[in-house]
């Protein structure tokens, strides 16, 4: 009988496709299960694993981290990168680990996957946690571009760069890439005042084994936009439906995450409710590293 599966690497075969999926588990399988869904498309779970997964397990959870099909360490040249494909992979994890219910923790784009999965399979989800998760994509793109136009109102060269992105097809991979590219160049994803703890976490990750497997499939976003019709969505109607169905929703966001407007944050808080929402100081997009202690404390208080 397997009691402890700490830092156990599993390669499983998906039933339908025979596709190998990278999965790693942390903690005691008798504890409440948390499945972490990473960002993307083109992301992976290495930063979460290299900094936070074991610490979350140490709080009394059974943590499952995995890379979606075709992304990171789950190489698959035939991956379609659709939400439905992601749902199949999640269901295979439930089956392989004999899970009836699990807590879903979605970060960034993973929050969209988590929300749409919970909407389709609410019976499988005991709680939905959205961590710096996307939910109203066009509002995010609009906010990025508006903020930058305001910042560079007297810089014709920068305004030209912004205008080129702004005039792209809003339902295209190029538009998404352009918006996030500009956001990255302008520090939207970085905490303003790195702490000693956050600096150490990032440094240890970059010096460790997980960073060596920080594999990014640059073709993933393009294929996603070719194959997935739901490519620029507002998931708030789904979240309201999920809440009505009785699945608790929690939101945790960084006050310095530059991709969300205050109106977006307020609308998310209205959905989760005051007691199910945390807004962390001196914290940007990678909040489980930027403010790890506060991140873990909130999850423990909500989920234990």
UniProtKB/TrEMBL annotation:
Keywords tagged on the record: Hydrolase, Signal
First and last residue of the signal peptide: 1-18
Family: Belongs to the peptidase S33 family.
MF GO annotations: hydrolase activity
Start and end residues of each AB hydrolase-1 domain: 33-290
InterPro entries per UniProt: AB_hydrolase_1, AB_hydrolase_fold, AB_hydrolase_sf, Peptidase_S33
Full protein name: Alpha/beta hydrolase
Pfam family membership, one: Abhydrolase_1
PANTHER family in alphabetical order: HYDROLASE, PUTATIVE (AFU_ORTHOLOGUE AFUA_2G14860)-RELATED, MONOACYLGLYCEROL LIPASE
SUPFAM superfamilies in alphabetical order: alpha/beta-Hydrolases (SSF53474)
